[in-house]
Amino acid sequence: FLHSYQSLLWNKAASYRMKKRIAEGETDGMDDAKDSCSSNEDVQVGDLVLIEDKSQKEGGSGTSGLQGKKVKIVTQEDVKNQNYCITDVVLPLLGYKVQYPQNDTKTSFETMLQNDGLTLEHFNNIQDRELALGGDYRKLICRPSDVDFEIKRYFNPLQPLLQTDLMEVHNVPVPPPVTIGRQKQDAMVVDNLQHKENDACNKNDEDEKEQPNKKQNTLLGMVIGFTLPPSSYATIALRELMKRPTSNEYQSKLLLEGDCERNLGKGFD
Questions:
Q1: Residues 6 or more apart from 244 whose CB is under 8 A from it?
Q2: Res 204: pLDDT
Q3: pTM for this one?
Q4: Which regions of the chain are under pLDDT 50?
Q5: 13 CB contacts (<8 Å, ≥6 apart)?
Q6: Which residue from 39, 65, 124, 260 has the highest number of Cβ atoms inside 10 Å of its Cβ?
Q7: Residues 6+ positions from 202 with CB-CB distance below 8 Å
Q8: How crowded is residue 81: how many other Cβ atoms within 10 Å of its Cβ?
Q9: Reduced 3-state DSSP string for 110-121
């Protein structure tokens, strides 16, 4: 329960920090991944940045834990000299060993705790070692690497576009769809995936106009591969790429209508 509460507060604090970033005129979306150090507005005075993160081989604690991690508070001089990028900014998981941002992001933590009848000091005085929370740090924004994608045209909505583990065990090949395009790229230009998909949709529409008497009934799919650092989630990366909610309520109402699935989720805001 305590670890879930840590995550809940972190998620809310991250949402607060990002909304504040957008409200103050900074760019939204994946575009600023192209050059995340190009603006000194990305990092704010009082933010926490991770300046050391040792691997287990180097004496660190690995994917979770504070051993081998070191943070510092961003100063006005750091902002002026653009010493750090938004991808260096971290937020703490609540605990008695962590530092907190020295700006209104810390205030957001305190307000959330106050709403639950708690303060930061409550977590400094837990005597039971089973319940004590040391805390940790998580990146506010992660940049995926090894980004690779294919856009495929296929006909059956149930047709797998990748070989599942079960298919591999039984040596079942993937039915070959028509590959429209394939590209490997750095995540700094990951937004081009969306442009590529739109181009493919437009191309498919042009094909239909050229052959009005031929029923297409084709679907477009995108197969994406990428690598994320520990404590990051592929579902969230895909949510940011597709700009669609990942909730069960939303996903359960998606419909396959039209060659480019343009009407998926029609009626949602």
A1: 250, 264, 265
A2: 47
A3: 0.68
A4: 27-36, 39-40, 185-198, 200-201, 203-204, 207-214, 258-261, 263-269
A5: 91, 105, 108, 109, 112
A6: 260
A7: none
A8: 10
A9: HHHHHHCCCCHH
Measured torsion, CA atoms of residues 226, 228, 233, 239, in degrees rounded to the nearest 10:
-50
Q: How far is it, in rounded angstroms, from Cα 97 to Cα 49?
A: 16
Specify whether the CB–CB gap between 224 and 152 falls below 8 A: no
Tokens of 128: 């039971």
Amino acid identity of residue 60, one-letter, is G
Q: What are phi and psi of 73, to 5 degrees?
A: -90, 130
Is-contact 135 5, C-beta < 8 A?
no
Q: Convert the pLDDT of each residue in 136-154 to its tens digit.
A: 899 998 889 999 998 888 8
Question: Is residue 138 within 8 Å of residue 3, measured between CB atoms?
Answer: no
Give residue for tokens 């429209």. 180
DSSP string, 16-75: HHHHHHHHTT---SSGGGGSTTS-TTSS-TT-EEEEEE--TTTT--TTSSSTTEEEEEPP
Query: CA of 13: how far to CAs of 19, 75, 109, in Å?
Result: 10, 20, 7
Angle at Cα 256 formed by Cα 254 and Cα 262, nearest 5°? 85
| Residue 223 to residue 159: CA distance in whole angstroms | 13
